[in-house]
Amino acid sequence: MSLVERDLNVIWHPYTQMKTAMPPIPIVRGAGACLFDEDGTRYIDAISSWWVNIHGHAHPYIAEKVALQLKKLEHVIFAGFTHEGAIELAERLLQILPDNQKKAFYSDNGSTAVEVAIKMCLQYWHNQGLSKTKILAFSNAYHGDTFGAMAVSGRSAFTAAFDNLLFEVEFIDLPDLHNLSDLKSQITNLKSQLACFIFEPLVQGAGGMLMYEANLLSELMAHCHQEGILLIADEVFTGFGRTGKPFACNHLSQQPDIMCFSKGLTGGTMALGLTTCSAAIYEAFLSDDKLKTLFHGHSFTANPIACAAALASLDLFLAPETTENINRIVKAHQNFAQKIASHPKIKTIRQCGTILAMEWQTLDDTSYFNTLRDRLYNYFLSAGIILRPLGNIIYILPPYCITDEELNYIYTKIEDALVEV
To answer: Which of 65, 132, 134, 263 is catalytic?
Structure first.
């Protein structure tokens, strides 16, 4: 049997209607910004395989560090024990994060990093005998698919089956020059109930690569701090260079109390989650009363192999050539955006760092389920490019090692699609 036949016999794929979906493409190896299937067909991975692969596939440096770690220590329980990789990774990350981030809590993916952050905030107030249990979030947010992360994500078809089981959240619109004052008033009216405000800084990824201004977010954050509301920056997607700076929060004049990381944390090599927090958050759990402990953990918390991958990825991320590559991609995106911005089929085009999103004009409303999505997806696959449109919104989010030739090929095929699709 072929890989596809074997897969369809036993696998249930994510975000996939298995009855109507096309058969999966069997990938057998990766190199740089490209993936290769069992027939040898090459695909340029223009979305970094769900936004995780920042340095390219099968990077030899990360592979070497992981192989060395496998021969040394594969896992150890992280309650009552520690290991060098977890300590070094926390030390090095905290050095480059906003200076109020003082402690790191490990988990195993982006959703659980968010779950940890939410629990930290809710218990922060509980430990002080205060009942502040409501959470503020943006409409159209996406923070993950576990129940807490779903609850603080925008209600949609993805949550519909579970809506009556999700805890109540106060949703607000993204800030703009017209609504900022009203948003502040709304927050002030709810301040006695609000435990925290969670947000994707600058870019709402799964919501459609929706982008908003750093200065407006900073002003909203300052108001929340003034009203005694904790701030969670979900940098699972935006972290590690995606917005043109190391972290999206580097664009802001305010600092969050808690930050969440995953995806690019290990360069896409394997799953790892991390939640960092300020000293004030951490100290609210220090007590002779054991009931004030943060009761959260995972079997694979701070897995040594994952930490080794993350440390190797961090080495690559901090290398000068990675900064040069990020700047090169940013400039290339800018030039391409200017070239096609006036095309009649382009409704809007927006960019934040290495993220370029193009919203296509359609007869249907902008939606994840827009019928244009499948036609565009298949068009680019046939051209050897992996682009996964969010409905009628195409975005490019490449590994930083992508070559100019590969980028230009993607741009050319998008221009072709504007004529042919």
So the answer is: 263
Q: Is residue 267 located within the same domain as residue 227?
A: yes
How do residues 92-141 score in pLDDT, each as one tens digit? 999 999 999 999 999 999 999 999 999 999 999 999 999 999 999 999 99
Q: Of 106, 234, 411, 413, which residue is the catalytic one?
A: 234
Catalytic residue of the set 43, 106, 124, 142: 142
Residues 307 and 334 in one domain: no
Distances in whole angstroms, Cα of residue 142 to Cα of each of 7, 110, 153, 218, 296: 29, 11, 5, 20, 22
395 catalytically annotated: no
What are the pLDDT digits (tens) for 231-290?
999 999 999 999 999 999 999 999 999 999 999 999 999 999 999 999 999 999 999 999
Q: How many domains does the chain have?
A: 2
Do 357 and 303 lie in a common domain? no
User: Which tens digits make up the pLDDT trace of 180-236?
Assistant: 999 999 999 999 999 999 999 999 999 999 999 999 999 999 999 999 999 999 999
pTM for the whole structure:
0.97
Catalytic residue status for 142: yes
CATH number, domain of 72, equals 3.40.640.10
Among residues 15, 331, 404, 416, the one annotated as catalytic is 15
| Mean pLDDT to the nearest integer, 77-93 | 98
Helices 180-190 and 214-226, packing angle to 10 deg: 20
Q: Which domain holds residue 41?
A: 3-58+321-420
* 15 catalytic residue (yes or no): yes
